[in-house]
Each structure stands twice: as structure tokens, then as C-alpha cells.
Amino acid sequence: MANTLLKPKIIAKEALMVLRNNAVMAGLVHRDYASEFVAGVGDTITIRKPATFEAKEFTTSITVQDATEQSVDVKMDKHLDVSFAVTAKELTLDIADFSAQFLVPAMQAFRDKIDAYIIAEAAKSTKTVDHASGAIAPADIIAARKLLNDNAVPLSDRRFVVGTQAEADLLGNELFVSAEKVGTTEALREASLGRKFGFDIYVDQNIAEGEEDTKLLAFHKNGIAFVTRPLALPQGNAESAIVSYDGFSLRVVRGYDLTTKKDTISIDMLCGVKLLDERLVAVISDKEHKTGGE
What we know:
Elements: H1 8-22, E1 30-33, E2 44-48, E3 71-75, E4 78-86, H2 88-91, H3 95-122, E5 128-130, H4 138-150, E6 158-162, H5 164-171, H6 174-177, H7 186-191, E7 192-196, E8 199-203, E9 214-220, E10 224-229, E11 239-245, E12 248-257, E13 262-275, E14 281-286
Parallel strand pairs: 1-10, 5-14, 6-8
Antiparallel strand pairs: 2-3, 4-13, 6-9, 7-8, 9-14, 10-13, 11-12, 12-13
């Protein structure tokens, strides 16, 4: 019996699972997904912001508040793609082996790009806390907490994300030595420094550290949105599939190159990021902190 080639649908499902398990920043912010197709990169769509309400004092009648007015435009300007050539033999691998060889590194590349997009968008917030000098310390987290409290940010779903040097600083503090791990995916559990001062605290290797100003982030989940929409399946004979789940959407297309006698697997995603409410995002500006123990 001939070996069965892996179909795009199977590859897409596995790739999506790997991406969700590896997501850090995308797992910490508001995710928006809808099933309508988007024509391509550069399209602008309108998404509904998470609803906010004001508690009114009841006297003789109620005041009906319209949550549907909370919307914002998001430009779908990020088209991520990883395409790679495979042999017929490699396409007959068990999906677990195929995933380890191809999909895990491909989705880690997606993860890094998505993290960088979200971090850059969050850093646009004008709500800042200045870190003077020396190691990042609990005092910086407390200052960020005060800023969010002053802005009446909900106490739940708060996150604090640091880079690798700041993580090393915090792990040198006894408050973080025995931090309890939290998180719903493998990546979030591995990145977690525990919950302190009302924040779930994480490290992200994509926060740039070095000569430039390092931006550490304290934010509520609803302050930033990561938005995906499915791309249409290609016309023609190419095998393809779209899989969407939990705010993520991937397209997988398989083609064949006669000149190399190899198949090409193309995995892509159309996405955008948006700072929804800068009152919910505090940027810890670390201009003086030197990396590498300097």
C-alpha cells in the first residue's frame, strides 16, 4: 500500500496548535477573529472594542448604554509567511515527526514576529513610568500598578512583561525566587515569573534590550488587540486549507515544482495589531539600565 501524503488540512490544524502553544504576547492581549475573508494585506477592517460601561445611580428610570458604539479601525498590514520545500518522503512522515521537523520552527518564527508587532504597538502608549537607573526592581512594578490604578484600570487581567535582563534582575530578588507558575499554554507557563503586585509577570525575549531605550510593559488585556482574518483559498489546482480557532487563523497551501520535483508547503497569516486604549497600557521607560551587568 502506498504511503499517504499529509494533507494541508492536517498540516494546518497541527500548525495552529503549535502556534497557540508557543504564543506569548498574543496569549496576553485581546484577540479578535471573524470568519469573513479579507482581500489581502493593507485592508482596513472595523472591530468591536471590549465593552465598557458606567454604573448609573438609579432614580426613576434606567439609562440604556449602547455597547455597539465601541468600535475601532484596524489595518490588516501584517502578512506573515513561511514557505519551505519538502520531498514526497517527508510528506509521508507521521504528523508528529513532520511537526517537530518543520512546523515547530515555522510557528516559532511566526510567534517572534507577532510578539514584536504587539510590543511595538503597546509601546506607543503615552502613559509612562520612568525607571531611573540600576536593576529593574519591585518598585518599578509598584509604580506601574499605581499608574494603572490612577487610570481606574480593572484589577483583573493585568500583565507585566519584561525582557531577559529585567527578568534576571527580578529573579535576583527573593520575592521572585519561588514564583508560582501560571498560564494556560505551554509558552505562557514557561515565560511566567508568577503573580506579584496584582500582575501576571512574564518574560519575552522579543523585548529589545541594549543601546536603545528598553520598553517594559504593564497592561490590561483589553488595552491591545491582536486581530486575524482568513485569507481566501487560492484558485486552481493547489491543495489548500484554512484553520481558525481561538483568535488565530492560518492558511496552508501545497504546490508542486516540476523543476525540483519537490512540494512546497506555504503557511501564511493575515493579521493586525491595535492599541485600543492607552489608559490601559503603561510603558516602563528604562533609558539608564545597561544590559550584560554593566
